[in-house]
Amino acid sequence: MADRPRPFDGIDDLLDRLNRQIETAARSWESQVDNRSQFDLSMSGAETSLDLADEGDEFVVTVDVPGYESDDLELRLSGQTVAVSGEREQRRAAGGDEETYIRRERQTQSFSRQVRLPEPVDVDAVRASVNNGILTVRLPKHEPSADAHSIDID
């Protein structure tokens, strides 16, 4: 009786090829992380949109934060990285009666977004405001000193 091909003989080869492709893709992604991180270092919050604009003398970061008050938001600048995070809790009914709701989908929400700026900024001149659910952060670029400094040589 002739040997019949077994249907699972090729599975090992297929899994080996798939494993090699995944490893190659992972190495490629890791090498591109540094380039990607210049723009976006997001940890979560895919539902929160962020824009970074270069307006000549300043960078402007605009973040959609609908339903967030300024007290719900935290804004940090560390080096050339701007981090914006927010957390809001669900609003309780005036009487506190949970049984009045037929459907309740608005719960505690949080987000965290980070963006790396292409140039240094003047930390002391940064301004931020929230208006109509949009956080706008203005980051004036750091002006390099035109003064030449003499350096003593030992």
UniProtKB/TrEMBL annotation:
Entry keyword annotation includes Nucleus: no
Keywords: Stress response
Xref: SUPFAM superfamilies: HSP20-like chaperones
InterPro entries given in the database record: A-crystallin/Hsp20_dom (IPR002068), HSP20-like_chaperone (IPR008978), Small_HSP (IPR031107)
Pfam family, one: HSP20
CDD domains found in the cross-reference section: ACD_sHsps-like
Record PROSITE patterns: SHSP
Keyword Cytoplasm: no
SHSP domain span: 41-154
Family statement: Belongs to the small heat shock protein (HSP20) family.
Protein name, entry field: Heat shock protein Hsp20
Higher taxonomy: Archaea, Methanobacteriati, Methanobacteriota, Stenosarchaea group, Halobacteria
